[in-house]
Amino acid sequence: MDVPALHLSYLKVGDLARRTGKTVRAIHLYEELGLLAPIRSKGGYRLYHARAVDRVEWIQKLQDMGFSLTDIKAFLQVWEQSSTAPSAMQTVRDIFSEKLRETNDTLARLTKLSRELEESLAYLDSCKSCEPVHTQQQCGCCDMHGHEGHAPLLVDGITRH
Amino acid sequence: MDVPALHLSYLKVGDLARRTGKTVRAIHLYEELGLLAPIRSKGGYRLYHARAVDRVEWIQKLQDMGFSLTDIKAFLQVWEQSSTAPSAMQTVRDIFSEKLRETNDTLARLTKLSRELEESLAYLDSCKSCEPVHTQQQCGCCDMHGHEGHAPLLVDGITRH
DNA sequence: GTACACCCTTACGTAAACGTAAGGGTTCGA
DNA sequence: TCGAACCCTTACGTTTACGTAAGGGTGTAC
Fold first, then answer.
1. Residue B48: per-residue pLDDT
2. 3-state secondary structure of A67
3. Cα Dmax for chain B
4. Separation in Å: C18 C1' and A52 CA
5. 3-state class (DSSP) for residue A135
6. Residue B93, C-beta contacts closer than 8 angstroms, at least 6 positions apart
7. Nucleotides on strand C with an atom closer than 7 A to protein CB?
8. Structure confidence by residue, pLDDT tens digits, B71-114
9. Distance A127 CA to C22 C1' (A)
10. Of the candidates B126, B124, B106, the residue with the CA atom closest to the CA atom of residue B114
11. In Å, what is the separation between the CA of A90 and the C1' of C19?
């Protein structure tokens, strides 16, 4: 029997960690949660297939989307418990569809925030040349900004308690 | 001395909670962290000025931007410790400026994710009519999708371990 | 003057995603 | 065969932003 040298084809946990930018502890955790299932060397070392890199990157992507690791586990279970491809795919589709909605909501919120930040920065720029110099307690009641209304909410909120 | 009726001009903690959509506990927490400083009734009730609503909403906004409550506290301290408006404003400006960068990074990431989700959904749609029906284990190796490469990462990752 | 809603403080509980430390084996090249 | 580097399990610690419960006052409308 020609047993291939394991160390040539498999990754140890530290290797996987390095290739994915995760810590060893994180990878252990993923396994505890059922997201990874390495084989073991006779000495007990975890041995990962090269595909595990993809799996970890996939996990990262779902995390970026706002899924918790527990969500991801449920996700995999749904998959493994579906017997036919169409039903599994439909479930996955539903989950992704909902997440797309959420992602787009978040995008809208952040876009608004980005604009508010820009406005606030513009406002604050005119503070640099405040003359005569005010104390910060006096701030917010000067006419240096050419703003018809008042300061942007992000700035105004600092002084309001 | 004409003492105004407190209950007419001030909010109790429950009132503030209702007007901001926060819980009483959350508002207590904000106070513990130094983000709010209500006066007290003779019986010990917290009494909030109407402006406290703005302050809480401001806190919410900063949270949305990814600031922790501790960050926000530091933020306020910087403000209160600056004696002149220009120096305080400059510090605030720097913080906002950094956060704008982060926000825009996040926007870029989420935009990409949104696109990936759409691609994945399109891909999964062609699974609905899988014929002959495959088991989910067989899935990922059929030619029904007209994709030259393989499944989108978000889909492909499910089956790779 | 009493009921009922609301408030007080204190303090422990919770969930997520790991960090960190202890005590001890495993690999593998030299 | 030895040592350095790496791995194992177990298990407690950490942070954030509150939740929740206990035991007991307060406010106010009737």
1. 96
2. coil
3. 89
4. 20
5. strand
6. A121, A124, A125, A127
7. 6-11, 15-20, 25-29
8. 999 888 888 887 676 777 888 888 889 889 888 988 888 898 89
9. 56
10. B106
11. 38
CA pair distance B58, B48, nearest whole angstrom: 15
Span CA (B75) to C1' (C14), Å? 28
Contacts of B153 in chain A (CB under 8 A): 54, 57-58, 61
Of B75, B97, B157, the CB nearest to A121: B97
Q: What is the mean pLDDT of chain B?
A: 82
Which residues in A lie closer than 8 A to residue B117 (C-beta atoms)? 65, 96, 99-100, 103
DSSP one-letter code for B11: B
Return the number of other C-beta atoms located less than 10 Å from residue A27's C-beta: 23
Interface touch B36/A161, C-beta < 8 Å:
yes
Concatenate the DSSP letters of all residues of A68-113 into one string.
Answer: -HHHHHHHHHHHHH--BHHHHHHHHHHHHHHHHHHHHHHHHHHHHH
**What does the pLDDT profile of chain A (161 residues) look like in tens digits?**
444 444 558 999 999 999 999 999 999 999 999 999 999 999 999 999 999 999 999 999 899 888 999 999 988 888 888 767 677 788 888 888 988 888 898 888 889 889 999 998 888 887 666 666 666 655 655 556 655 556 777 888 887 65
- Chain B contacts of A120, Cβ < 8 Å? 96
CA angle A122, B96, B24 (to 5 degrees): 120
Joined tokens for residue B15: 């009132």
The residue of chain A nearest to residue B158, with distances taken between CA atoms, is: A76
The DSSP bridge partners found for residue B46 are B40
**Residue B82 to chain A, least CA–CA distance (Å):** 7
Q: Which nucleotide is nearest to B47 (CA to C1')?
A: C7
B3, pLDDT greater than 50: no
Burial (CB count within 10 angstroms: exposed 0-12, middle 13-18, buried 19+), residue A114: middle
Mean pLDDT of B23-41: 96
